[in-house]
Amino acid sequence: MHQTEQLNLLPLNLGHLERQVEALLSAYTRLSAENNSLRQRQEALVAEKAALVEKTELARTRVEAMITRLKSMENGL
Q: Does residue 60 sit in helix, strand or coil?
């Protein structure tokens, strides 16, 4: 390839490279926003799980207390 032909291809190559960089920046921006959204959703789910575990433990404690009371009533009869 001659030097003149190489110089003629330079703007084409730069334009192509510029489009690729713009596409990468766009993908980065989109993925970064998606990642932030997923992190927030994960934090919300972790908090929701903790609340559900706490409610389950409270229900378990109440049921165990009822069973204990029923057994003591049964033994008292």
A: helix
Q: What is the mean pLDDT of residues 43-67?
A: 98
Q: Give the Cβ contact number of residue 4 at 10 Å.
A: 8
Two structure tokens written together for 4 = 């003149």
pTM: 0.64
C-alpha closest to that of 67 among 75, 52, 54: 75
Report percent pLDDT > 70 for the chain: 84
Residue 51 and residue 77: Cα distance in Å, rounded? 39
Q: Give the whole-angstrom CA distance, residue 17 versus residue 54.
A: 55
